[in-house]
Inverse folding.
């Protein structure tokens, strides 16, 4: 800074003016845990294993998702269906299905590789936890519970986070998902978002 | 009860009330600083604890009290532990003489109405330097030492200009009693005839309290935390309290000496004097926060050059002109 600028009182006052003006500007902060943005319907978040309408698992244990996964995050161990206990309509089903969400890069390749649309990425993103072990999601958390329906394919999600998506939504969600903001992923929706900021 | 003992009781009660008020004011000055700085940086500021973040100071205090109190191995234990108290006690002591409103018959709005009040305040704030410089030195660590060396140099340099700028007011008022100074501003507040002194005082006051843009003593970017780097827990908190109370003090002095103390603005005498006083102090506190969020830290050699080559000569010139004016007018 030159000596001329250092003693330039006008510039100092102009600087004070800027900060004073900004004090009254609208703050872009979203009060996150109590107010949330809604994400795009096809946002890549936590996985989910879907079911058919009759309650059977869609996954046939083919391991295509596991082999296509660039992060090696998916482990699938298939097993034969027995006539007494048919888990899936095909010959095989996934005896174990585990995804390490800390490895996962949420690219969606598993979703594309799946021949039966069993594995899908939901827009849920709040997976934080205290232990590393709890980020390995196995079937008990990935599979849509039978009473919760079939789970929605990405194309069938009309707007934002569907609130009927499986057990994790019940366990993890602290706030009603309907109260969130509309997404900022398209320009038009920015308006509705700023409306909510008025308070 | 003898009259003598009733005076002592009165003083004790006043001290207790004042202590409470000053500490509460400190707590909310801190909250106000975080809020206002947040707004200026397009953030909402603290808003999680209590409605509108109003319980934040209480939570901060609990946090500081519960934190571990460390003393470094290389520190001088006695002085290291004593330093925060020097800062705090001198910061509080000033409030013994500050009058908050117009004294009525047999009733002063201060713990004591000292006829050399302004001198006592200057003396106390000067002693306050010891807290910072001893604390930094006794930490036995390099960054605190640098911070305390800077603080000593900075405070000594700026105290000269500050004293010079105040003497102009004292000459105009013809008294060193704070009540007398405020009463002599009934018609015209001293910041108009003493505009140069006022500006110099405001600048030096920022430097005296180690606030941005003159916060070379703390200089988080270069010295980690400056003189208080090694301090933690409650002892750090004491330095923190002292800093904010010093801010309040210089705001009070500026109000008393330049902005007419409890004198009302344009004859609005319906509003009590204490309210005017507090409003004026609040204005200065806001200005502090405003300056902090607007200006970057000044370079150390520039700070010294500014203090010695600009502020001190101008303040001296102002003093000479004022003195000559008073002498000629009689």
């Amino acid at each position: 800074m030159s000596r001329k600028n250092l003693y330039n009182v006008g510039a100092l006052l102009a600087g004070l003016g800027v900060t004073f003006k900004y004090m009254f500007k609208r703050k872009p902060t979203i009060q996150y845990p109590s107010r949330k943005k809604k994400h795009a319907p096809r946002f890549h978040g936590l996985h989910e294993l879907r079911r058919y309408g009759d309650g059977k698992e869609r996954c046939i244990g083919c391991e295509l998702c596991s082999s296509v996964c660039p992060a090696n995050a998916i482990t699938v161990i298939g097993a034969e269906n027995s006539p007494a206990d048919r888990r899936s309509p095909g010959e095989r089903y996934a005896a174990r299905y585990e995804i390490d969400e800390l490895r996962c890069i949420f690219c969606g390749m598993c979703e594309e590789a799946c021949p039966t649309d069993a594995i899908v990425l939901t827009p849920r993103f709040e997976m934080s936890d205290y232990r590393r072990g709890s980020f390995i999601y196995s079937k008990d958390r990935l599979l849509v519970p039978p009473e919760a329906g079939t789970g929605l394919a990405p194309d069938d999600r009309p707007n934002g986070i569907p609130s009927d998506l499986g057990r994790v939504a019940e366990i993890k969600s602290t706030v009603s998902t309907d109260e969130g903001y509309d997404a900022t992923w398209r320009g038009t929706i920015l308006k509705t978002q700023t409306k909510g900021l008025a308070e | 009860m003898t009259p003598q003992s009733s005076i002592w009781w009165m003083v004790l009660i006043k001290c207790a009330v004042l202590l409470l008020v000053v500490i509460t004011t400190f707590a909310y000055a801190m909250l106000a600083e975080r809020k206002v700085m947040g707004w200026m940086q397009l953030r909402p500021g603290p808003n999680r604890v209590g409605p509108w973040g109003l319980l934040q100071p209480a939570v901060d205090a609990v946090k500081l009290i519960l934190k571990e109190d460390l003393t470094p191995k290389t520190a001088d234990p006695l002085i290291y532990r004593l330093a925060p108290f020097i800062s705090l006690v001198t910061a509080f002591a000033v409030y013994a003489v500050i009058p908050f409103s117009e004294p009525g018959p047999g009733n002063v709005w201060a713990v004591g109405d000292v006829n050399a009040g302004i001198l006592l305040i200057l003396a106390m704030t000067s002693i306050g330097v010891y807290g910072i410089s001893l604390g930094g030195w006794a930490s036995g660590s390099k960054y605190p030492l640098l911070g305390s060396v800077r603080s000593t140099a900075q405070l000594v340099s700026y105290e000269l200009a500050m004293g010079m700028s105040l003497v102009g007011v004292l000459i105009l008022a013809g008294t060193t009693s704070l009540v007398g100074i405020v009463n002599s501003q009934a018609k015209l507040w001293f910041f108009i005839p003493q505009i140069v002194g006022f500006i110099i005082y405001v600048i030096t006051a920022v430097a005296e309290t180690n606030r941005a843009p003159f916060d070379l003593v703390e200089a988080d970017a270069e010295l980690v935390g400056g003189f208080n780097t090694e301090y933690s827990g409650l002892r750090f908190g004491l330095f923190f309290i002292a800093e904010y109370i010093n801010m309040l003090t210089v705001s009070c002095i500026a109000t008393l000496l330049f902005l007419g103390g409890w004198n009302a603005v344009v004859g609005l005498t319906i509003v009590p004097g204490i309210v005017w006083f507090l409003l004026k102090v609040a204005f200065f506190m806001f200005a502090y926060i405003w300056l902090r969020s607007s200006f970057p830290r000044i370079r150390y050699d520039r700070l010294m050059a500014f203090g010695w080559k600009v502020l001190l000569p101008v303040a001296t010139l102002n003093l000479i002109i004022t003195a000559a004016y008073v002498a000629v007018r009689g």
